[in-house]
Amino acid sequence: MRSIAGFLAGLVFGLGLVVSGMADPAKVLNFLDLFGTWDPSLAFVMGGASVTTYAGYRLTWRRPAPALASRFDVPSARQIDAPLLTGAALFGIGWGIGGFCPGPALTALPMAAPGTLVFVPAMLLGLWLGGRAKTAMERTSGATA
Amino acid sequence: MELDTATAFTPLASLAGGVLIGLSAVMVMALFGRIAGISGITRGVMGALTPGAAGIGDAGWRIGFVLGLIAAPLAVATATGALPRQTVPDALPGMAIAGLVVGVGTALGSGCTSGHGVCGLARLSPRSFAAVGTFMAAAFATVFILRHLV
């Protein structure tokens, strides 16, 4: 049941990426190219997604618990720390090179472009390495995530 | 990256797609009580599928979610008769570096466009506002350098 519900949520997310154009790196890179072939479409993706989520979260949180879990489990960290900002800067650089963030990269797999087939395994390796780096940085600074 | 061909401005389709992404994020919260962050979900799947892991545990919905993401273009192809068109950069060393840096950065920074950008902003999380400002600035700067300076 949870797997099927998860599949449907992922399918809706993926359809959103395709319909919005965000699954196309050319469109993403053009959004990021303010001084060139600028395409502002992605501002509408982010706007539509954020406003929908803002309203939907507030309706959802009126319920005592989620449908298929015992409680709402949202991140509680408040501190703006070095791993957060370093990680975000690195992510932005990679996003600007490839035009892929993690969701669109996974959704692009069935089209099997060579760039996608190189990007995704590298991203999985990076996720593993980054998780280890985060643990090490937190141990050094004594901070908690 | 020689990819700077113009793409059409698609405000309505992009808004509609954004709403679908938001609906998915709300589904994940309403069903599982979790943030729909793709980098975190993917890490959860990798952790559960690693040899020696203590079974799939709580990761069943995450595995389903990733399969749903991958199935989306196939669903589009079933409905329209063609896979979605896209233009992926074909400089493969660049794509390897990009993938690696995106993976490291999103794991270290605890989120990507979905977890910080969509869900974090909707939660009004100060950490997510800081992360989004940082990755957007880095991405704009990177594209400017690669397309206009190099």
From TrEMBL, chain A:
Source superkingdom: Bacteria
Keywords: Membrane, Transmembrane, Transmembrane helix
Transmembrane segments: 42-61, 82-105, 111-129
InterPro entries: DUF6691 (IPR046513)
Pfam assignment, any one: DUF6691
Keyword field contains Transmembrane: yes
Name this protein carries in UniProt: YeeE/YedE family protein
Highest classification ranks of the organism: Bacteria, Pseudomonadati, Pseudomonadota, Alphaproteobacteria, Rhodobacterales
Automatic annotation (TrEMBL), chain B:
Entry's Gene Ontology cellular component terms: plasma membrane
Sequence intervals crossing the membrane: 12-33, 63-83, 95-116, 128-146
Taxonomy, superkingdom: Bacteria
InterPro entries named among the record's database cross-references: Sulf_transp_TsuA/YedE
Main location: membrane
Subcellular location: Cell inner membrane
Keywords, sorted A to Z: Cell inner membrane, Cell membrane, Membrane, Transmembrane, Transmembrane helix, Transport
Membrane topology recorded in Swiss-Prot or TrEMBL: Multi-pass membrane protein
Xref: PANTHER family: INNER MEMBRANE PROTEIN YEDE, SULPHUR TRANSPORT DOMAIN-CONTAINING PROTEIN
Family: Belongs to the TsuA/YedE (TC 9.B.102) family.
Name this polypeptide is given: Uncharacterized protein
Organism for this UniProt entry: Roseivivax jejudonensis
